[in-house]
Write a structure and sequence with these properties.
Layout (H helix, E strand, L loop, with lengths): L13 H22 L3 E10 L5 E12 L2 E3 L5 H7 L2 H21 L5 E5 L2 H4 L4 H12 L6 E6 H6 L1 H13 L3 E7 L6 H6 L4 E4 L1 H5 L5 H16 L3 E4 L5 H8 L5 E2 L8 E2 H10 L4
Parallel strand pairs: 2-4, 4-5, 5-6, 6-7, 7-8, 8-9
Antiparallel strand pairs: 1-2, 1-9, 1-10, 2-3
Helix pairs in contact: 3-5
The structure holds ligand C2E and calcium ion (3 copies).
The site of one calcium ion (CA) has 4 residues, from strand 6.
C-alpha cells in the first residue's frame, strides 16, 4: 500500500499484482470448493434464558479446504465481491432447510436462522428460491429465520420492504442481526415485518463493566417487548452476563456459554441431551 500514488501505474506494481493474483486464485478455489462440496454448516444453539432449553439454532458456514476449517470472515467478503455469494447462499439455504426438515421429522420444533448478504437479498430469485426449497424439502413454512443487517436494509428500504413482505407471505421470518451497531433507525422497526432483534455481542461483552451498555441492552429489551419482538442476546460467554440478562426478562441466549457453533451430529447430540445451559 505504501506504493500507492507513487506513479500513475500503481495498479501494475508487482505488489498489487501479486495481491490480485492471490485474490483471483482464492476465488477460483472457493468456486471449486462450492462445487466439490467443501462447504459445511455448523449450528449454534439458541436457548431460552430461563430454562436453558434449546429453542433453535443459527446456521454458520465454514469452508473445509486442504484440511483446514476456514471461518466465514475470511471468505464471505470475497464471495460477496465476486458474486459467488449467490451459489454459496443457495447451498446454505438448501442445506439448512434439509437439517430443519430432519429435526421436524424427529419431532423437534426448532427455528433455524440463516444469514443473508445484501447481494442475495436484492436478487430477484430469492423469493422463488425459498419457495422451491420449501417444496423440495417439505419443510413446514415458518421454521426458517432470515437474519438481515441494518446496512443491508439501508441500501434500499422500499425494495427491502417489498422482498421481506413477499417472503413473509410464504412463511419467512426475520431477525434484525447485530442490532445496535448500524444506524439503528427505529423506522425499520416500524416499516419491516420483523420477528425479532439480535442484540450485538459488543453490548453483551460490556454488560458487567459498563453501565451504558447495560442501559442500552435494557432499552432494547423493553422496546422489543413493547413491539412484541423476540430478543436474542448474542455472544453470551459468562454466567455473570447471563445473570444480568435474566434480570431483564425472558429472552433467547446465544453464545459460547451455551455452546459454540458445532457440526450437525454434535448439535443433534445436544438436542437429545435436552438443555444446553
Ligand atoms: P454473525 O451473523 O454475527 O454470527 C455470529 C458470530 O459470532 C459467529 O461467528 C459465531 O461463531 C460467533 N459467536 C457466537 N457466540 C459467540 C461468543 O460467545 N463469543 C464470541 N466471541 N463469538 C461468538 P462466525 O461463525 O465466524 O461468523 C462470522 C460472520 O460471518 C457471521 O456473523 C455472519 O455475518 C457471517 N456468516 C456466517 N455464515 C454465513 C452464511 O451462511 N451466509 C452469510 N451471508 N454470512 C455468513
Ligand atoms: Ca447472524
Ligand atoms: Ca450477529
Ligand atoms: Ca456480525
Amino acid at each position: 500500500a505504501k506504493q500507492l500514488g507513487r506513479n500513475n501505474y500503481q495498479f501494475f506494481t508487482p505488489e498489487l499484482d501479486a495481491q490480485a493474483h492471490r485474490r483471483i486464485s482464492l476465488e477460483s478455489k472457493l468456486r471449486r470448493g462450492i462445487e466439490q462440496g467443501e462447504l459445511e454448516l455448523h449450528f449454534q444453539p439458541v436457548v431460552s434464558s430461563g430454562s436453558g432449553k434449546i429453542h433453535g439454532a443459527e446456521a454458520l458456514v465454514r469452508w473445509r479446504h486442504e484440511g483446514e476449517l476456514i471461518a466465514p470472515g475470511e471468505f464471505i467478503p470475497l464471495a460477496e465481491e465476486s458474486g459467488l455469494i449467490l451459489p454459496l447462499g443457495e447451498w446454505v439455504l438448501r442445506t439448512a432447510a434439509g437439517r430443519a426438515r430432519a429435526w421436524q421429522d424427529a419431532g423437534y420444533r426448532l427455528g433455524l436462522s440463516i444469514n443473508l448478504s445484501s447481494r442475495q437479498f436484492t436478487d430477484q430469485e430469492l423469493v422463488k428460491l425459498y419457495l422451491a426449497v420449501l417444496a423440495d424439502t417439505g419443510l413446514e413454512p415458518g421454521r426458517l429465520y432470515f437474519e438481515i443487517t441494518e446496512s443491508l436494509l439501508m441500501k434500499e428500504i422500499d425494495r427491502a420492504q417489498h422482498i421481506l413482505g413477499a417472503l413473509r407471505d410464504i412463511g419467512g421470518k426475520f431477525y434484525l442481526d447485530d442490532f445496535g451497531t448500524g444506524y439503528s433507525s427505529l423506522a425499520y422497526l416500524k416499516r419491516l415485518p420483523l420477528d425479532g432483534l439480535k442484540i450485538d455481542r459488543s453490548f453483551i461483552r460490556d454488560i458487567e463493566s459498563d453501565a451504558d451498555s447495560r442501559a442500552i441492552v435494557e432499552a432494547i429489551v423493553s422496546l422489543a417487548q413493547t413491539l412484541h419482538l423476540a430478543i436474542v442476546a448474542e455472544g453470551v460467554e459468562t454466567t455473570e452476563q447471563l445473570g444480568f440478562l435474566q434480570g431483564m426478562g425472558p429472552m433467547l441466549i446465544q453464545g459460547y456459554l451455551a455452546s459454540p457453533p458445532v457440526p450437525a451430529e454434535r448439535f443433534d447430540a445436544l438436542l437429545r441431551q435436552g438443555d444446553s445451559l
